[in-house]
Design goal:
- The protein is mainly beta.
- It folds into six domains: about 1-35 and about 45-180, Immunoglobulin-like; about 180-295, Immunoglobulin-like (Sandwich), CATH 2.60.40; about 300-420, Sandwich (Immunoglobulin-like); about 425-520, Immunoglobulin-like, CATH 2.60.40; about 525-615 and about 835-960, Sandwich (Immunoglobulin-like); about 620-830, no CATH class.
- About 0% of the residues lie in helices and about 40% in strands.
- The protein is built from four helices and 75 strands.
- The termini are far apart.
């Protein structure tokens, strides 16, 4: 029994403070500090108006003090101080932080001016203030304390108290004898004999000292109709001291509203104990107090009665002038009862955007019983050029009155996000990628997901391209938005679009936005004498003017034979006519770019990326809210390096996402998984998150914003405990020995890494959606298992995700073999289509080359092994200065022993290629799946987005003279 006493002797020695409310609004009372009835309050003035609390009340008269306790003498040092007002008070004006002399409600030693530190809490809709001096007051002989209300305190509606002088509300002494163990009740609210208590009111019992908390139960502190059984109610300690309930104050909340026009009683008994031997002394009063409820229950709801279709509780251009509120009334309503409704918002007449004001209107209930009353607010909020409120969030409140009986105010449903907005949204820009000031949207994918920003958050949008339409996927508070994908196919010319959108209040953009979608990376058509080549910047997707285009017939020769040269124009294009029909090799060279070659193609149109020497990449990093003791894996649809499909945080800094290169100017779909990585058993992860789906995975939003080249994107990713986790229906075996050229004896991590990835229409690469692991069996055979986030995959369903289980092995030489099995998330079924791909090993150079080299490497690609499959290889050469030459070829035949490519001869081009000396050369091979593309009809971005198999060789050194 001693523990509660020890606990409270420590806690009562602490000083608590609570933050002062900073909502301010227009003052109605000229007798105020800092305001004369309008305009902007002085910086030091108190906030004149506050939002009406739920259950609060306003009496349209100057506020008054109903009662104050304690008074006189004999009180313990731990006694709280309570002050009851006749209406809800402006809590900010009274100062919830009571440590200084600027407090408007304070306790001080009589005869002094120094306020004693207290904590202050308002209860019962702001009508009762409870102050708790901490540390406790001193029991000093001949010392009296006084409770003071200073000038400047206000009601919730901004009215000050009568008079111009400070008021001493009570005097008392804390001179209880040291041998007094018993406790008493200081105050009960609603107060004894109160006649006008709302049916929804809670009750408070304030003790003069802390009882043993466990001794206070629903059996000895209860609420009942007079002489009736106890009401079902929740008993709690609502006030805290250092996070622990303060038993000097108990609250009773009826589980259902009390009956109207009924006397109710608060009943206690002496089984409430204090310390080891004390009990409650209450004069054997049974009931201890009683009060009578008002006739009416509070209104059931309040809403905008003529809100725009689909935009609940919104006020916009369409209903501003004729606005009405609907107030739903309870069965206790009588004909003639008065319905008072208010709309609160930020005061448009002051400089501060946080100043509050309200507009109030009333109506009369026409009949008895349940009904909906319409309250006319037409014209009360002003006009579009002179509003009463700032545009933004508003609060709807309502009260029912019968004579002098008032219910407490209720509020409208906050989740409806009531708001005032009469300004139509405006487009800020499309993209990036795109050109500032232009409505053109650029993409290097087969589908476009239109990204952009508007002047405010959007609720709806519709993109129309030809006969296809796409709706809004998500929008953020900063105005950025993302549309669902629209399939483009292969487009060699801009495609027009129309975009309309609506803000969160239902205002439609004044005029539809018209622009073009420009697709890059397209290879199409059969060359029959005319060839068009387009050069574009891989980082910005903008055209590259002044690039040199070199065309070799068929495959290049050294020295070049019948080679053609041209320079791209402002549109990034060069056209060759009069060609012999057939195949050709295209090379692009720009002074500020790496070189690019499309090898032996028969296309009539080729849009090819040039990677800039500066600004080719950005970086992404940030933090992830992973649980203590775990690390995270983070995926990003914009990773630049094809070898990177996820990055891991470290055990020493588990929340820091390593800075990783990404594609500039591309929206980012970022996901994260928390757990122990690499896992060896299920669950493979314990938490998951996706920025595109909001912090709960249930609120679609816009993706992480694109950043320009050489810039950094820092994001904070929230992960939630994993729910809705899917798992494969069974494991499958993967023999890494089939990846010819992979040194399985030196695998990083001792085995393959397993990830679940999803391809999203319109986004580059793939995004991480799950994690798995491989268990080694006989030889190099691993049993592959994986689990995945159904919540993320289902949330991304508008982007038509194709989901894969990716098994990736990298050896000590840097050779990589990556394979993906198709996964059906809804069932966990999978289809393992291919063996692990072999490594396209580059052969050693037989002798130094005089000019551009010929390169031999293992031919490992066979598109026929994959239904609807395509195969593309890439050979990269890097000189000593770091400049690269990237040669891309489509592999349309089966796998063979060796494939040879000849880098084109640039002797006649008159532009700088790679430096002579030692070149570092490596090869990559990729198989990918497409139901819409075919050999010679390609969109280059799809080869990564729809990748099924990928292999990369280590570099070989070639000497070029």
């Amino acid at each position: 029994m001693q523990r509660p006493l020890r606990r409270w002797s420590v806690l009562l020695a602490l000083v608590l403070t609570a933050g002062a409310c900073d909502n301010v609004g227009r003052a109605f009372d000229p007798n105020s500090n800092g305001n004369n009835g309008g305009g902007t309050p002085t910086p030091s003035g108190p906030p004149p108006i506050e939002l009406m609390p739920v259950g609060g009340d306003s009496r349209n008269v100057r506020p008054m003090v109903r009662s104050t306790a304690p008074k006189a003498g004999g009180w313990p040092v731990s006694v709280p101080i309570v002050v009851e007002f006749n209406e809800s008070m402006n809590q900010g004006s009274i100062k919830a932080t009571q440590a200084g002399n600027d407090a408007k409600l304070l306790v001080r030693v009589k005869g002094t001016t120094q306020a004693l530190p207290t904590s202050l809490d308002f209860v019962l809709g702001g009508r009762v203030a409870i102050m708790r001096p901490l540390p406790p007051l001193a029991n000093t002989p001949n010392t009296a304390y006084e409770v003071v209300l200073k000038t400047g305190a206000r009601s919730v509606d901004g009215l000050t108290f009568a008079g111009t002088a400070d008021q001493v509300l009570a005097e008392f002494t804390v001179d209880e004898a040291a041998n007094v163990n018993n406790g008493a009740i200081l105050a009960v609210f609603p107060h004894d004999n109160q006649p006008d208590v709302p049916c929804e009111s809670e009750s408070y019992v304030v003790f003069n000292k802390p009882p043993v908390p466990s001794s206070v139960t629903s059996a000895n502190l209860l609420l009942r109709p007079s002489g009736g059984p106890a009401l079902s109610a929740t008993l709690s300690e609502p006030l805290r001291v250092s996070g622990i309930g303060d038993p000097r104050v108990f609250k009773l909340v009826p589980d259902t509203p009390m009956a109207g026009s009924t006397q109710h009683e608060v009943v206690v008994d002496d089984t409430i104990t204090f310390g080891t031997s004390g009990h409650l002394v209450f004069g054997n009063r049974v009931p201890f107090s009683h009060f009578t409820t008002v006739r009416n229950n509070a209104p059931v709801g309040v809403t905008v009665g003529n809100d725009p279709a689909g935009f609940t509780d919104k006020i916009n251009l369409g209903n501003l002038a004729n606005l009405v509120l609907h107030v739903d009334l309870p069965a206790s309503t009588q004909a003639g009862d008065r319905v008072v409704a208010r709309i609160y918002g930020s005061d448009h007449s002051t400089a501060s955007t946080t100043d509050q004001t309200f507009v109030e209107r009333a109506a009369t209930a026409g009949i008895a019983g349940v009904q909906t009353v319409t309250v006319d607010f037409g014209g009360t909020l002003g006009t579009t050029d002179r509003l009463v409120f700032d545009e933004g969030a508003i609060t709807l409140t309502a009260q029912l009155q019968a004579g002098d009986q008032h219910t407490g105010f209720i509020r409208g449903v906050g989740t409806n996000d009531p708001r005032l907005d009469v300004t139509p949204p405006v487009l800020v820009r499309i993209g990036p990628p795109g050109t500032a000031g232009s409505n053109d949207a650029l993409t290097d994918q087969e589908s476009v997901v239109l990204y952009g920003s508007a002047s405010e958050q959007l609720a709806e949008a519709t993109l129309t391209i030809g006969s296809a339409t796409a709706a809004l996927f998500g929008s953020a508070a900063d105005g950025t938005f993302l549309l669902r994908p629209v399939f483009l196919g292969r487009q060699t010319a801009p495609v027009s679009y129309t975009l309309t959108f609506t803000d969160m209040a239902g205002n439609l953009v004044a005029a539809a936005v018209n622009g073009n979608v420009v697709q890059r990376g397209v290879i199409t058509g059969a060359q029959a004498g005319t060839l068009t080549v387009e050069a574009y910047d891989q980082s910005t997707l903008l055209p590259v003017a002044g690039a040199t285009v070199v065309v070799d017939p068929n495959t290049p020769t050294v020295p070049a034979t019948s080679q053609l040269l041209a320079t791209t124009g402002a549109d990034g294009r060069a056209t060759f006519t009069g060609l012999t029909a057939g195949r050709h090799t295209i090379t692009l060279i720009g002074a500020a770019y790496n070189l690019r070659t499309l090898y032996n193609t028969g296309a009539a149109y080729a849009s090819l990326p040039l990677r800039p020497l500066v600004g080719a990449t950005a970086t992404a990093g940030g933090t992830v809210t992973v649980a203590t003791g775990f690390t995270a894996l983070v995926g990003n649809s914009a990773f630049d390096d094809p070898q990177v499909i996820a990055v891991a945080t470290s055990s020493t800094n588990a929340t820091l996402i390593p800075s990783t290169t990404i594609l500039p100017n591309h929206p980012q779909v970022i996901t994260a998984f928390g757990g122990n990585f690499e896992p060896t058993t299920f669950p493979a992860f314990i938490s998951h998150g996706c920025m595109l789906l909001g912090p709960t995975l249930l609120t679609p939003t816009s993706p992480a914003a694109p950043v320009s080249g050489d810039s950094n994107s820092s994001q904070t990713i929230t992960v939630l405990p994993a729910a809705g986790v899917g798992s494969m229906i069974s494991a499958y075996a993967k023999d890494l020995a089939l990846a010819t050229g992979l040194d399985t004896a030196t695998l990083e991590g001792g085995g393959p890494r397993v990830r679940v990835m999803s391809s999203l229409a319109g986004f580059s690469n793939q995004v991480l959606t799950g994690v798995g692991f491989g268990v080694r069996g006989t030889g190099d055979v691993y049993t592959i298992s994986a689990s995945y986030s159904l919540g993320i995959i289902l949330g991304l369903a508008p982007f038509n995700p194709t989901t894969w289980v990716a098994t990736e092995a990298r050896d000590g030489l840097g050779r990589m073999s990556r394979h993906r099995a198709l996964l059906i998330p809804a069932t966990g079924a999978f289809l393992d289509l291919l063996p692990p791909p072999a490594i396209p090993l580059v052969s050693a150079q037989p002798a130094p080359s005089n000019g551009s080299p010929s390169v031999d490497f293992a031919d490992v690609l066979d598109a026929s092994t994959l239904p609807a499959g395509l195969a593309i290889g890439e050979v990269s050469a890097r000189d000593a200065a770091g400049r690269r030459w990237l040669l891309l070829y489509e592999d349309t035949d089966g796998a063979g022993s060796v494939r040879t490519v000849q880098f084109p001869d640039l002797a006649n081009a008159g532009v700088p290629g790679l430096q002579t000396g030692v070149w570092s050369i490596f090869a990559e091979g990729r198989l990918y799946l497409s139901a819409t593309l075919s050999p010679g009809e390609l969109v280059l971005g799809e080869r990564i987005r729809q990748e099924v198999a990928y292999a990369r060789a280590d570099a070989a050194s070639y000497t070029v003279q």
